[in-house]
Amino acid sequence: MVRSENENRPSEARSRLLNTAGRVFYAEGIHAVGVDRIIAEAQVTRATFYRHFPSKETLIVAYLNEADRAIRDQVDTAVAAGLPAAETIRRVSTYIAQGIRSPGFRGCAFLNAVAEYPDPDHPVHRAVLTHRQWFLETVTGLLAKIRENPAAPAARHFVMMRDGAMAAGCLFDPDLVCETFLLGVDALLKAHTTPTDAESAEGR
């Protein structure tokens, strides 16, 4: 069945609203941007906005879900290449570095959002935690394919390096920040791959 222009319009309007919100929320902060501005820049009516997003809060969560989906797609692409786990982690790290080097970069969208919504029971805060838990579990799973026992602390180390690089990337030379981050990832993988003296002794 062929859809008419009128039937397609709501989804197009929703995309415009999400794209507009994503751009201005990320560039200027969430609290700093009101619904009226998003409606005006997306060129939709107020009724259209509230038909798709009953509140600004639901729009913010949808914006974070879109950011989450984009990162999941990157990770899925890295995993789908079928490389060894260490190389998959390096590829994910390269995607992170590319983001830091991109025009208009101003840090991690999730860390920026949670700074504005510190209440752990708020839906925005929960959306951030859901994304970060998924990312941590994904990195832990990849590291466990290299060595299982110390995978969890190594994954936390990786996420902390990633957070530091994302924070520093909008303050200092992004090329230098990315170089430092990628060197840190290589060092972490080398340390994670090398058995400790105690493990070596157990294997004898």
Q: If you had to describe this structure to a student in words, what would you say it looks like?
A:
By secondary structure, the chain is mainly α. The chain is built from ten helices and no strands. The chain has helices at about 5-30, 35-40, 45-50, 55-80, 85-100, 110-115, 125-145, 150-170, 175-195, 195-200. Helix 4 (about 55-80) packs across helix 5 and helix 4 packs parallel to helix 7. About 25% of the residues are buried.
Task: Put the structure in a nutshell.
This protein is mainly α and 204 residues long. It is built from 10 helices and no strands.
Return the structural class. mainly alpha
How far from one another are the termini?
69 Å
The major pleated sheet works out as: none
Report the count of strand segments.
Answer: 0
Number of helices: 10
- Round the Cα radius of gyration to an integer and report it: 20 Å
Write down the overall geometry.
Answer: elongated
Strand content: under 5%
Write the layout of secondary structure elements.
Blueprint: H1 5-28, H2 35-42, H3 46-52, H4 56-80, H5 85-101, H6 109-116, H7 123-146, H8 151-168, H9 174-193, H10 197-202
Helix pairs in contact: 1-2, 1-4, 4-5, 4-7, 5-7, 5-9, 6-7, 7-8, 8-9
Which structural traits does this protein have?
204 residues, mainly alpha, 10 helices
